[in-house]
Write a structure and sequence with these properties.
This protein is of the alpha+beta class and 628 residues long. It has three domains: 13-207, Histidine kinase-like ATPase, C-terminal domain (Heat Shock Protein 90, 2-Layer Sandwich); 213-338, Ribosomal Protein S5, domain 2 (2-Layer Sandwich); 388-628, formyl-coa transferase, domain 3 (2-Layer Sandwich), CATH 3.30.1540.20. Helices cover 34% and strands 21% of the residues. The chain contains 20 helices and 23 strands. Strands 1, 2, 3, 4, 5, 6, 7, 8 and 9 form a nine-stranded mixed sheet that branches. A five-stranded mixed sheet has the order 10-11-14-12-13. It is globular and about 85 Å long.
Length: 628
């Protein structure tokens, strides 16, 4: 016998708040994120954060913002009450961190909360308390201008949620990482973090206001490490209503983990799959397997072209034209990395500085990208390491089947003269100035490495890896200079897809044709492949089409054909590159060095391995204890 249907009822208001809190409040770090974003929206320039027991026992945020009026203090804890939007038009162009009016009431429903605030036109502050959803009336309370929100006993009334929290140290690490992300979005705001009970309060992190270039650099180094600051490449590009600025690490500085990846959209931190995929693709051909790039990137886009109301915690967004955004980010990063060449960073450069961020609400300085942007590349910024003077066509070329040594014998004689003759100081200085970035070859080591004397040290080059990269880039350039050859199929291949995929394939048919894959739609679920790229004629065409469609569904763009063609070219280049134990003349070694200097991405081979390394005179002196 079946049971009667359950009765439909309206849920109690407190339970509604607690359900909503599950979308916004995951752990203490998410509580602090919402409170800090409110402080930033309130114009705060100094924020103090107190955390007790990893934030479970207490999270307290005090700011010097414009405060909340007495008659609005209780209203601020009401659900869907906000001062940031008033209409659907405001929602479509929202520029503040918060706007949903859910954070404070959601937090109040699962904790014991106290809010104290004072505005500049008031002589005294006022306090409101919330305990298990019950609010008190505002009462006078001494307080400086600004707001303090004190959240205690998180999830005390939702024990099932509290059981999912981790150990105190783990929760504290989540808190600190979240604060670091916000600190990188607003350099004009100071952040101080304290931990422990009131009687045992200790300072954990201090980010002073960064009001000059040096201070900005120090904050970035404090969060991302000095190595990132020293090896970062600067990005700044504008296209239409989009601007991308920030810094990406050199491929040789990639990490085993993806923990140093920070992306901000209009000042809002997020982890968007479309953007992350675009960055990853920008690093194709230059990252060793399993390595992850470090980056600090800021994308500014017209707010009407992005929907930030796609996720309760606002960590995900929807773009009106995701494909365009993906391509813009990908192409920008690829372009910056393509400008790196072997030898460009032979000499250690003194650390340069990030630009001074414009203060919130101020007019952007010349060269800045707007008030969202914490940095710009106009002046004083962390710049790409300087390239030394050499021309693309200045060295001898490497043929497909061997090396050319023309114009190199004179360079070899110059190197020998510089190394063997006791020259005067002026002559030595002139010789150093005329030394190319990768120096002059001296010898081979075990038939694998080229030893080269640079202006101030020793360079070792993996000759196979270097020749593989130069051959690969030359083949890519030749392919891009003409039309990708295609192979018409004698018997077209019929592919059965879902209706949605068939429509997607038909929509992007022109895009597929540009890379040599020509298709034709036969019916609601049927596609016919007519031509394929010559280089991929041995590949499974059906699988190729399905992979392209999968990427289009996921990211709104696909580079699968490009990547597959590049894999084929990489294999050809690898097999055609000079092998270990092949004896090279000095002229041949110098020809390879010169071509490396003129070849893009020549710091790494096609598999992401480094092609060269540098040992400075100071390092050699230290090995032999010279000068001690």
């Amino acid at each position: 016998m079946s049971s009667p249907p359950a009765q439909i009822r309206v849920l109690p208001e407190q339970l509604i708040h607690q359900i909503a809190a599950g979308e916004v409040v995951e752990r203490p770090a998410s509580v602090l994120k919402e409170l800090l974003e409110n402080s930033l929206d309130a114009g705060a320039t100094a924020i103090a954060i107190d955390v007790e027991a990893g934030g479970v026992k207490r999270c307290r945020v005090a700011d010097d913002g414009h405060g909340i009026r007495r008659d609005e203090l209780t209203l601020a804890l009401a659900r869907h009450a906000t001062s940031k939007i008033a209409s659907i038009d405001d929602l479509e162009r929202v520029a503040t961190m918060g706007f949903r009016g859910e954070a404070l009431p959601s937090i109040a429903s699962v904790s014991r909360m106290k809010v104290i605030s004072r505005t500049a036109d008031s002589d005294v502050g006022y306090v409101v308390t919330a305990d298990n959803g019950a609010f008190s009336d505002p009462s006078p309370n001494p307080h400086p201008v600004g707001t303090t929100v004190d959240v205690a006993d998180l999830f005390f009334n939702v024990p099932a949620r509290r059981k999912f929290l981790r150990a105190e140290k783990t929760e504290m690490q989540h808190v600190l990482r979240m604060i670091e992300r916000i600190a990188l979005s607003r350099f004009d705001v100071g952040f101080k973090v304290f931990s422990g009970a009131p009687g045992a309060r200790r300072s954990v992190v201090d980010f002073p206001r960064a009001l000059d270039a040096v201070a900005c650099t120090e904050r970035v180094a404090q969060v991302m490490g000095a190595e990132f600051v020293e090896t970062a490449l600067h990005i700044e590009r504008e296209l239409g209503n989009m601007k991308l600025s920030g810094w990406i690490c050199l491929p040789t500085a990639a990490r085993a983990m993806s923990d140093l990846q920070y992306f901000y959209l209009n000042g809002r931190m997020l982890r968007d799959r479309t953007l992350m995929n675009a960055v990853r693709m920008g690093y194709r051909d230059v990252l060793f397997g399993g390595r992850h790039p470090a980056y600090l990137l800021y994308l500014e886009i017209d707010p009407s072209a992005v929907d930030v109301n796609a996720h309760p915690a606002k960590l995900e967004v929807r773009f009106r034209d995701g494909r365009l955004v993906h391509d813009f980010v990908f192409r920008t990063i690829e372009r910056v990395l393509s400008e790196t060449r072997a030898g460009a960073t032979v000499n250690d450069q003194a650390p340069t500085h990030f630009d001074l961020p414009p203060a919130q609400g101020s007019q952007p300085q010349q060269g800045a990208l707007g008030s969202f942007w914490p940095m710009s590349g106009a002046t004083g910024g962390l710049q790409q390491p300087a390239h030394f003077g050499y021309g693309r066509g200045g060295g001898a070329s490497l043929g497909a089947s061997g090396f050319g040594g023309s114009r190199m014998e004179a360079g070899v004689r110059d190197a020998a003269l510089w190394t063997s003759n006791p020259a005067s100081a002026a002559t030595t200085q002139a010789a150093r100035a005329s030394t190319p970035p990768l120096g002059f070859a001296l010898a081979q080591l075990h038939g694998v490495y080229i030893l080269s004397q640079a202006a101030d040290g020793l360079i070792l080059v993996d000759m196979h890896a270097a020749h593989e990269r130069t051959t690969y880039e030359r083949m890519k350039a030749q392919l891009q200079a003409g039309t990708l050859p295609t192979q018409p199929l004698l018997v077209p291949i019929a592919v059965t897809l879902s209706v949605a995929d068939a429509e997607l394939a038909e929509e992007h048919g022109d895009t597929f044709a540009q890379v040599g894959l020509r298709i034709e739609r036969l019916g609601p679920t049927s596609i016919r492949i007519l031509e394929v790229p010559v280089l991929l004629q041995k590949f499974d065409a059906t699988q190729l089409l399905q992979q392209l469609l999968a990427e289009l569904r996921e990211h709104g763009a696909s580079r699968h054909i490009d990547e597959t063609v590049n894999e084929v070219l990489g294999t050809i280049a690898c097999h055609g590159a000079v092998r270990a134990n092949r004896t090279l003349s000095v002229a041949e070694m110098n020809a390879l060095l010169r071509e490396m200097e003129a070849t893009v991405r020549s710091d790494q081979c096609n598999h992401g391995r480094p092609t060269w390394t540098y040992v400075g005179m100071s390092d050699l002196d230290r090995l032999f204890m010279r000068g001690r």
